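User: tokens in, sequence out, please.
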């Protein structure tokens, strides 16, 4: 039985695109919500520049119909419901546009998130002042894997948090050692997928806290990932109107690798039963802590 020990606590996660809330610390968010915390996901763009998995809606991409952002709003809503958290768009839906990957011409758009630092910081500061969270989750200085919008999300989070009273900011990361162990448990990948080469997955050698996910937390995270079928392909046989093709992976043990997924690049990645974070700012974790709220007051 889950203990409702976080009633009254407030948490904000700042993410660049729809699907990031599921991919970066989604299990932690689900766990905090189930324990009674008020968890809000702030999504900075609509992910308009994303690619699309599955043929039925492949024409929604920016270079064709340019309707992907609106479609991803619905995916985000389903994901938030799966995690048991509330969500809002920074300033308003569509205020800031997906900047695309490094070197993309889309970064020249006047509404591209990378060009709107001051406005975005002011908008996020208003969110922090209204919600008054004790804990904020986002990415590290490299954005997790170098995406310009993730880096911008990191920057505005720390800028907006100044003099806000936020007790702790954490960065969602993946453990290099545990990711390697989980990958070693994968015995078969779906047709067309491949295993990652050295350095292809964003991982770190050190972290400040690791949070064990319950079966309920893990199930919520996986449901949230499945809610983004244009972006995430879970290799568990799931099909949808968006991606009608089933994918299956072989895993010799689920102790490390609870599930297998890929993004549109079809590079195999593990879903693990533990999530990791680094301390970005604020109150340090008590020695030996496994609760991401440990040491905070509300």
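Assistant: Sequence out:
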């Amino acid at each position: 039985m889950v203990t409702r020990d976080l009633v009254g606590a407030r948490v904000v996660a700042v993410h660049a695109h729809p699907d990031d809330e599921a991919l970066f610390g989604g299990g932690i968010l689900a766990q905090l919500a189930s324990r009674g915390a008020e968890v809000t996901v702030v999504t900075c763009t609509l992910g308009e520049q994303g690619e699309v998995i599955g043929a039925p809606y492949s024409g929604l991409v920016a270079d064709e119909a340019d309707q992907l952002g609106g479609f991803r709003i619905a995916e985000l809503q389903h994901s938030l419901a799966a995690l048991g958290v509330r969500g809002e768009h920074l300033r308003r839906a569509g205020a800031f546009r997906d900047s695309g990957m490094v070197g993309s011409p889309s970064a020249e758009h006047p509404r591209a998130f990378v060009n709107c630092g001051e406005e975005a910081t002011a908008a996020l500061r208003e969110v922090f002042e209204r919600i008054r969270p004790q804990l904020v989750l986002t990415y590290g200085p490299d954005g997790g894997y170098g995406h310009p919008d993730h880096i911008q999300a990191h920057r505005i989070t720390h800028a907006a948090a100044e003099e806000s009273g936020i007790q702790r900011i954490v960065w969602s990361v993946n453990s290099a050692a545990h990711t390697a162990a989980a990958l070693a448990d994968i015995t078969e990948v779906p047709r067309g997928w491949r295993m990652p080469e050295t350095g292809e997955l964003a991982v770190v050698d050190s972290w400040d806290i690791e949070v064990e996910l319950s079966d309920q937390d893990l199930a919520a995270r996986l449901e949230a990932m499945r809610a983004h079928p244009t972006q995430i392909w879970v290799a568990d046989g799931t099909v949808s109107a968006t991606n009608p093709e089933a994918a299956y992976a072989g895993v010799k043990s689920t102790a490390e690798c609870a599930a297998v997924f890929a993004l549109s690049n079809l590079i195999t990645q593990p879903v693990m039963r533990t999530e990791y974070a680094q301390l970005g700012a604020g109150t340090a974790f008590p020695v030996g802590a496994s609760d991401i709220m440990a040491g905070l007051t509300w």
